[in-house]
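Format notes (please read before filing issues)

Several people have asked whether sequences and structure tokens are stored in separate files. They are not. Every record keeps both together, in the order shown below: the sequence lines, then the token lines. Line labels are part of the format and must not be stripped during preprocessing.
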Amino acid sequence: MSSTYQYPRTEFDTPIERRKINRRRRRGYYSRQRRFIHLGIALSVILADRLSKILILLYLKQGTNITIFPHVLRLSHVHNFGAAFSLFAENASPLAVRRGLIAFSVAAVLMVFAMLWRTGRQYSLTSIALALILGGAVGNLWDRIHYSYVVDFIEVTIIRYHWPDFNIADSAIVIGACLLLLEIFRPQTSDPATISPAPTSN
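Then the structure lines:
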């Protein structure tokens, strides 16, 4: 009989074995809980993005704006037919741009979701960043499919520089990307308890 065979657990198992089983069950339970929490972060971004865009569409006419902080922040109503921050919006073939952006967005959403499902078992900057990026990508993808454009409404001016109009989904994607960069360049510290001692010769 193979030495790797494991007999079914019974009431005669030792307390140590039962504790190991309970630890494995708890790890699986907490892993599922963390995944759902990360998906909840993504869902919160989607809901906030949708609600803000619906309010803009209802109460602010296209091409108009409301000043929040003079010379710094305004709420506007802009239809973006390009990528983030109006990239490719002036392309000669808007239909091709729209189809390409939808295809790219779908691929990005699937890839980020797969990465989040894998890393979401633990809390980390990476998992939170992926949740933000996923929510933002889905928010803008909804607009491209439903409206053929993305609703932008946040207009920022820094001194004399006018930042291209953006929305909550764009903000979540940028924040997520910054968190990923922070995680990449953050010094990695090794836990001394996890370092096994070097073998000694007799």
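For reference, the curators noted about this record: Confidence is low (pLDDT under 50) at residues 191-196. The chain has one domain: 40-185.
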